[in-house]
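Pilot study result, target chain (248 residues):
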Amino acid sequence: MSAEPLPQSPWQTATISRIEKRTPRVTSFWFQPSRPFVHQAGQHVDVRLSAPDGYQARRSYSIASAPEAGAGIELAIERLDDGEVSPFFHDVAAVGDEIELRGPLGGHFIWSDSDGGPLLLVGGGSGVVPLMAMVRHRALRKSAAPIALVFSARVWDEVIFRDELIGLDDRRDGFDLVLTLTREQARRPADYSRRVDARMIVQAIERLPKAPVLAYVCGSNAFVSAAAQAMIDAGIPARLIRTERYGV
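Predicted structure:
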């Protein structure tokens, strides 16, 4: 993530309390920090690994859990074969291990139910993680703020949090899920089989009772650039669009 660490967020140890496979390349890890940890939906943490020779590797990960979750914080970590940190978590880390983290970090890409809605959320791949925190926050707070989430993945089996998101969508309580697969045919009648474009964004906005008051997009640099432009082409003012980028 692009946000700079805040001086008032010192490093602390956190214990892995639970591990759950999400997709073939994404696994969720729950961490119990050693000190009180209060975050807002959309924030992230820095994780630091230290080798016996003193070498350190750091990576930033968005928090998937809602502030109200209460069982530590969930990080959904995608395996990057050439990464320095993610292979450790996927191949080595176990329940009971301690790691170092600091946070919460980030004050721009956040949402609270008190901010109201409607919201348009657009995520690509693991870019859905901070958006998931917002969706969960809405559900746990029993907020009436309408949300439309457009989630782009390559294939059905790479839709992170798929069953949970579809379950929330099935409630028909003001949360609408739009899935778009770029390398497979859509599995649900209202979903898509192409990259995010302005027409898709227009149709997502039409699911909301009125124009969004804020729009969030998270994913790779290329995805965010394309999706943000699609939002603008769909008529969303640039000043309402908040972006979070990662990777290349």
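One observation from the pilot: Confidence is low (pLDDT under 50) at residues 1-6. A full batch analysis is planned for the follow-on phase.
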